[in-house]
Amino acid sequence: xxxxxxxxxxxxxxxxxxxxxxxxxxxxxxxxxxxxxxxxxxxxxxxxxxxxxxxxxxxxxxxxxxxxxxxxxxxxxxxxxxxxxx
Length: 86
Fold this sequence. Notes:
Blueprint: H1 20-33, H2 44-81
Helix pairs in contact: 1-2
Protein name: Serine-threonine/tyrosine-protein kinase catalytic domain-containing protein
């Protein structure tokens, strides 16, 4: 992770479809859990909390994608049929 490129460690099966901030939170949790000095590792409750925060970010990323798809579909149907009469 020296390069700062999260896509280099992301699962390719995700196809780049993920919230970057969520992915960084997961990576941060993983790095903290693998610290050489055991006393510096987080307690499990802190790890779970960080992963839940990451999941919330990812879920909101999915919601944004749904909203973008709806907006795109609406624009597409408007252009196919033109403006509607009032």
